[in-house]
Amino acid sequence: MAEEEAVLAALSRTSEELLQELREAWDMPAGRPIRVVGRLTLTWRGSDGADMVFLNELEHPETGVGLVYPRIGTLVINPDPVNASVPPGPSRTITDAKTLASGEQWAIAEIELSTLEQRRRLRNPWVVTVRSGTLRLLSDLPDEWQVQVHGAQSVKRISASAREEIEDYVRNSVLEEDQELARSHAENIRRLAELATSRRQAEDDARAMLAGLNDELAAQQLRGDTARQEADGLQQRLTSERDQFERQQRHIEEETQLMELRYRRLKELLSEKRDRLIALGLVDAGDIDAVMWENEAGEEGRSGIRFSEALDSDLSRLAPVLQIELQKKGLLYPQALLRDFLALLRTRDLVVLAGDSGSGKTSLIRAASEAIGGVCTVVPVKPNWTGPEDLLGYYNPVERSYQATPFLVALQDAARQPDVPHFICLDEMNLARVEHYFADFLSLLEQRTDLPTIQLYTADEERHVVVEQGLFLHVEAEARRRAGLGNTATLEDILGNDQANAEIHRLSGLTDKESVLIYHGRLRRSLAAQMRMPTSLTMPANVWIFGAVNMDDTTHQLSPKVLDRVHVLRFGNPMLADWDAIESEIDAAAGTLPADLSGLLIRSDEIGLRQDYPVFDRQDDNVRFLSDVSRRHLDPLGVEFGLRAIRQAQGYINAAVTAGLSKDEALDNVIRHKILPKMAFDTARPAGNGRARREILVELRDELSKRFEGTNVQMDASSVAELDRMIRLAEGNNGIVNYWLR
Fold it and tell me: Angle, to 10 degrees, between the axis of helix 151-159 and the axis of helix 516-532?
């Protein structure tokens, strides 16, 4: 009785109230028509010819989530997926009965409540029907609706236009790299000439002052030696960059030839057989147009204040802006951490954010992306990921299509917006073993001289599709000729003609029991797959990859291979932060910045370009210090810190100075990012040189304390403080040192 009263009470509410309840339950915007996606079905046809058409299995038009009726308290009105009847009128005329009977046609429409009489009869306050005249087939979907994902069928339709955009971006990006390398080549030649001139001048001066200036001679000789060293270094760089430039040119030519060959084969098929492919239903006209039309590079389409105009493209002024914008979202971060974060962005290295749940790892990535007008995609890592296909997808030989992943889709989205920064975060990165599913991608990211190419599947499949489509078109043309059908005959016309149908079976080698429709469907899927997914994808230059990890008993440790290639940015407990000090920083920064920077827009190249790590420079003070630390302390402790890590550290220090940190602060960050996370050993065991490991660790702590004494490094939050913590915790952990121990 109570359930009946609840239903009657719901039926007594106004239509607008009930529609608003549907919007809230289905996560749709208020004040707008309710649009849904569903499958058209001819449910029943009576003896009098009347029929009932429904839009079944309704889904959310943006997320693809299946829709169900709201509950009344704990009362479930109807547990089945929502459907909507299609009334007689314009909505019934957009397709034919055969298509309706197949149940394979998807459509989008606006819905409204059914009549009160129908809702009372069905005891459901939310029974809906399609608003007359609003039903549209998905193939006719207007561009301005921006539908992205509606299950497998929608993905095929939406993704079909991605191929040309990606290929066009690949061509543009490699041409841009070609031009950048040419400019760099010319600049290095100019600098080499200047240094050579400087060297000759120094030598001339030395010879002129040789007779009475013996002391000055030594200084001049030193200047000459220094100039020669710099010239030799630049000559080596010039030679290296010239070789790199030539390799890149050869790579561009090879890739362009291969791409043009594959594209020409597909384009020739689509161009010559366009009308027949459309008539036979093998491809949609819109998909062909998307491949055939040349994409025009337009503006990035973002509105706001340009970084170059508001802050003169000065990265050191960006940290206070981020700090203020993050405060508006209730997030308080010290300015030093934000400068560290910006420096890591500029390096274009993989960054792992470590900390407890709720420490603000993904929040920082999302908020920072939003603050600079970028896009953030969070990809949850699953514990069952075991290989690269879990990250990048795989080619399904049965479906003859590539099964994309959210990570790959995010890369494709970034390629369509080359000026917009795209942050991709692998959330809970170490729920699965990182070296299992991410090893291939880590190797790709090591390629620094140019953008790495991700090979998705073999290019031979593309050629097979073109040949197979051409053979089918030849067979159906011969079948039409023998049956007397014209060039405009559709697949329905051919299948409806007994002679043509028989000829199709005979010429194709199909038996009487084999279906032309199944063969046709396979051809359509294979052609659509080749049109929407390239065989390879160049890593977009506007993508930053992050990982968020939480070290506990449910996760895996990061292997030395992974730690050697990433920067680890560790987050503390936000409840222990000095909020007063952070707010004081924000107040001090607010007076030095323009009034409103909430719409700040930054291009990806303004953050930093992907380039090779700096050449190993033994004359650099920080390089000498890190080399000495590695030789005297790290190697005996079994902690690897080699040439690549030092070059990576050089790149970070240069980026950190640009972001507003001092070289001392940057060096301290290098130790916290690259060295301390690798420390996990038993101090009871002797080191490689026979000394006690604890003694060597204490010596390292003292060496760092001496190095940073009198600098602007905050010692209570430095690598020295971290080492003190690790040594203290090891004493209560049977002598086991572990950076991740708390």
Answer: 50
**Is the four-CA dihedral 65, 70, 76, 81 of positive or negative sign?**
negative
The Cα–Cα gap between 663 and 654 comes to 8
Predicted TM-score (pTM) of the model is 0.59
**Closest C-alpha to 33, from 157, 132, 120, 153:** 132
Backbone dihedral angles phi then psi of residue 105, each to the nearest 5 degrees: -90, 125
Is the CB of residue 428 less than 8 Å from the CB of residue 555?
Answer: yes
Q: Which of 675, 424, 401 is nearest to 545 (CA)?
A: 424
CB within 8 Å of 137: residues ≥ 6 apart: 94, 95, 105, 106, 107
| Nearest in space to 456 (alpha carbons), one of 399, 533, 367, 567 | 533
Quick check: helix, strand or coil at residue 1?
Answer: coil
Q: What b/e sequence results for 347-378 when a residue is b if at least 16 CB atoms lie within 10 Å of its CB, and e otherwise?
A: bbbbbbbbbeeebbbbbbbbbbbbbbbbbbbb
Rounded-to-integer distance, Cα 571 and Cα 574, Å: 8
- Range 429-446 burial, b when 16+ CB lie within 10 A, else e: bbbbbbeebbbebbeebe
Cα–Cα distance between 175 and 178 in angstroms, integer?
5
Cα separation of 447 and 648, whole Å? 13
Taking Cα atoms as reference points, which of 234, 235, 231, 233 lies closest to residue 223?
231
In terms of Cβ atoms closer than 10 Å to its own Cβ (0-12, 13-18, 19+), residue 267 is middle
Distance CA 655, CA 666 (A): 9
For residue 170, what are its two tokens?
């690949």
If we measure between CA atoms, which residue out of 440, 422, 470, 453 comes closest to residue 534?
Answer: 453
Contact 382, 556 (CB under 8 A): no
Per-block mean pLDDT, blocks of 10 residues, the chain (742 long):
79 87 88 89 66 86 87 79 86 78 84 88 88 79 48 39 48 69 79 80 74 67 66 66 62 55 56 62 59 44 76 87 87 91 94 87 92 93 92 78 86 89 95 90 79 71 63 72 77 74 72 64 63 73 94 88 92 79 85 76 89 88 93 92 91 93 95 94 87 93 94 93 93 91 82
